[in-house]
Amino acid sequence: VEVTVGRARRLRAVTDDIRSEAERALQAVAAGDPDALGVLFDLLGGRVFAVVKAVVRDPAQSEEVTQEVMLEVWRTAPRFRADRGSATGWVLTIAHRRAIDRVRSEQASRDRIHAVGARDQQRPFDEVVEQVEHADERAQLTDALEVLSDAQRQAVELAYYDGLTYRQVAERLDVPLGTIKTRMREALIRLRDAMEVTR
Amino acid sequence: LSADDPHALIGAYLLHSLSDPERVAFEEHLRGCEGCRREVERLRDATIALAPAPAAPPGDLRHRIVQQARATPQEPPSPASPGITAASPWPLRLTAAVAAVLLIAAGGLSYALVTVNERLERSRADADRLVELLSTSDLTVATARGVGGTTGRVVSSASRDEALLLIDGLEPASPDETYQLWFIERGQAVSAGLLEADAEGRTLQTLASDLASVDAVGVTLEPAGGSAQPTTDPVLLIDLAT
Q: Is the ipTM value over 0.90, yes or no?
């Protein structure tokens, strides 16, 4: 038990370090330093790319969107408010927002599945690798989402990863709109509480 | 908490699961509801838990991002937010000096100073070039009025290969049209790129080119994406020869 606690504490210390480094880098970005954006990308680029890829899926498009995200971070950094949340949360929110925008502007979710199917015939290998990676990413998430009920997790996953609106989620699951709204909000409250406990 | 209460939409909002019109309406509600605002702030970081494990981005992406940032102006901090305020990249007195030089050099340009100042706040690189250009002693200003209320000025210096183009009062272009800038040299039009104006129809461009051989600068309305040669009559033509 001692060992586990020690490891958890070290892990937390590392996470906290990254967190405050990201805060400092974002502050320098806000002051107009383009090199600080490179530093911020070193710290959070992998997470930004992962969020975008989880939603957009196509690697080339994910790269494009990641670049858009970092440029939006650059443009709007002077408006970031440290007293209203973490730098990581702020950057990943922009990443997810941009990824969702890309998916929605391109096609409805159903069309996207068809498109993936069509590409499967042209580039089966890449697509299979992509699907496997995607499944793997989802599997890794199970830990974080363990605190959620099955119903909450389902609602959150359809919205966050598949880019469905809550109305589409309600239709898909054949559940009243109000129930879906509540599930989404309560899922976030649970995730937040869990994060605070592990801190 | 009733399901119709806007408060109930906080989860869907943070998961980016509202349709665009609903998001706009909810953000409007947020502006007037401190309770919701605070809960959004408290819950936003919970979405970090949904982010998958980091994936290695392509190797040259970092370089491209930093390069692109260098060429992109930043937005000013929101005036009502004293949180992290970026140190002004440009000392105030220098901004004032530029304003003074512009006023003396170009007389009657004061309306354009708003644009210049905005630019100065946003981009240090642009400011550097402006200061250098505007502090030269042999500054000349060519002015022209175009279609409607369009006014254009080219501020240039013979000792430098740079000029400043200021245009005011451009009508908004329709989505399938764009303004294009032309250099007229010995009766030939050479494209100098597409022009983007702000909401008030103003634009400020640093023309990094030797204008010695350019007789006039023209602006036409072209199909989106621009044309190889002008296809319409100019909305503005600034004669540099006089």
A: no
